[in-house]
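Model it.
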Amino acid sequence: MNSSELRGFLTGLILGDGYIDKGINKRAFCIKSTCKEFIDNIDSEIKSCSGFKSKIKYTPEHISCGCNHKESWEYRIVAHAYFNKIYHYFYDDYRNRIVTTDSLKWLTPYGLANWYMSDGYVCLVGKTKGIIKDRRVDICTDRYSLQDIYKIQNCFTTKFGINTTVIKRDKFYRIRISKSSYETFFMLIYQYLVPSMQYKAYLGYEKQPEWMSDKLWQIQESLKSASPLCECA
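Modeled.
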């Protein structure tokens, strides 16, 4: 990746579950996931095109006080001036998360895939009862204001040709990919999804819908045949 591609790659992570830590001249970057392959891929990509110093911390699964904490991996880039430089594109003066026009301009398809892997999901409505009645493809944007979410929605439409709606979940608002844009969205990001997270592209159709291309249908069929992935969906 060149410098702009790296910035777009990181932008997706920061807009998702990643965060930039406190600092004055230098700031660290950190992201945590229960998917080791996702963390390893981030580490590999960043090492291949930057001089950042990084480390990965493993936390084993444990149960305490009735809470089940899954095993996880934390990827951390040691404090660097680069993250101090871009900090205010993602945070206001009170460390509240924000979305800026510039940060959305930086977002690339790979960055969007990172965002979806860290903060997106498919809900197959009715799957537990044996009949899928609806599909929901959402990106969690709980940390952002409604005004910022509208900026994201506009970016998805104008930059990527992806139509979305804004839905309310409890007191938060989230981005929902419209059915009319499933094809565009998944064909844009699928090549960047790590294998153990490809289940997030599985839509659970028994027959090929009229709107779905043969290429996307082949992907759906391959995911369907991978039973462990479908169980995660």
